Amino acid sequence: MPARMPFRAMALTSALLLAAAPAMAGPLQPPPGYLQPAGSKPGAASPCPAAPKPFTGTLAFQSKYEGSGKARDTLNPNAEKAYKAKTQPITAMEKGLVSRVKKYQRSGNAADLQCAVQWLSSWATAKDGAVTGAMLGEATNHTGKSLRKWSLGTFASAWVRLKFSASNGVAAYPEDRRRIERWLSAMADQVVTEWSPDDPIDKINNHYYWAAWALMATSVAVDRRDLFDRSLLLFRVFEKQIDADGYLPNEMKRATRAAGYHNYAMAPLAMIAAFAKANGVDLASEGVVGGRSALTRLAQRSETALDDPASFADKAGAEQDTATLDSSSRRAWLEPYCWTVRCTPREEATRDASRPLGSTRLGGDLTSIFATAAAGAASGNPMHEEQP
């Protein structure tokens, strides 16, 4: 018999579920930029290579921070090498799939679409004993659970891009669609059990936000309102965690990487807020302290992390490691954020100077999605505006 949830936790969860009730009925939708048709760039389709071998084994991987102290901020070169070697098929699938989706969105070529669908279908139908579907094996450690939700975010958001395109090409693949969506749902069910909003709040960090993004993307990909609501629950835990100055206590624990992890946490939260807005839920106006919402406080702190990471040193008690902050993908959150709220001129300038922006685990090219959506809404008013 499963363990009963404590009454206090049940009460909190029930209250948050009521608060999370969406304002719009009907099928869940992505932001409007996902609905644009595939392009028509001339040229022959590229050959479709075989998809990477599906990962059907136990999800148990060494952490690249293995042996580090409580801050988990010191890379272990040997552990990192082992991690990359064992996760190589997963990484290759994520990057290759996103590349194929991007190619189809540019070309509109049916063969490019077929290739992306085949890749997803091959992982959806992979078998390991009685289990059908890659990435559904037992996760025996934290890193294994992390890989599951990261890859789900990639796969689900890639499928959203294909499924909702006005070209409606996936209609030609009804059997593949059923297999893929059944598989995404099964992965999401496991992510729900592995990343709970009822876990101790001092343990809930960016990993939970990335899990929430994976659930949000899947909720739209397969039209499951329960996953949508679960994502909102996790987002609202973030709202309770962030302080008045935009700091996240559990990311400050990362010492030399505090700045980097504040910025890293912003990416999934911005995507969740954008998808929520597309379905009538204004997360960007919640958790207001001192006239600023929780999401805006983190956005402004994340800007600081990018522009002046050394400013985190005193509060974190350690000089900041800035190596990971140089990647343009660390600014990708500006695309969904600036669509969800009205960005400051400085934020817009940073976004425009950094384009094109994208991130594999957010589904790839975000500029083509949100710049189009913003242009289409130029004559209207955004749901929520932040004053410069």
pLDDT < 50 stretches = 1-22, 378-388
Distance between the termini: 54 Å
Helicity, as a percent range: 40-55%
How many strands, what sense, and barrel or not for the largest sheet? 2 strands, antiparallel
Given the structure, what is the number of helices? 14
Name the average pLDDT.
90
Quaternary assembly: single chain
Strand element count: 4
Compact summary:
Helices cover 53% and strands 2% of the residues. The protein has 388 residues and is mainly α. It is globular.
Describe the protein's topology:
Layout: H1 7-19, H2 77-107, H3 110-124, E1 127-128, E2 131-132, H4 142-163, H5 174-194, H6 206-222, H7 225-241, H8 249-252, H9 258-278, H10 294-307, H11 313-316, H12 334-340, H13 345-354, E3 358-359, E4 364-365, H14 367-376
Antiparallel strand pairs: 1-2, 3-4
Helix pairs in contact: 2-3, 2-4, 3-5, 4-5, 4-6, 5-6, 6-7, 6-9, 9-10, 9-12, 12-14
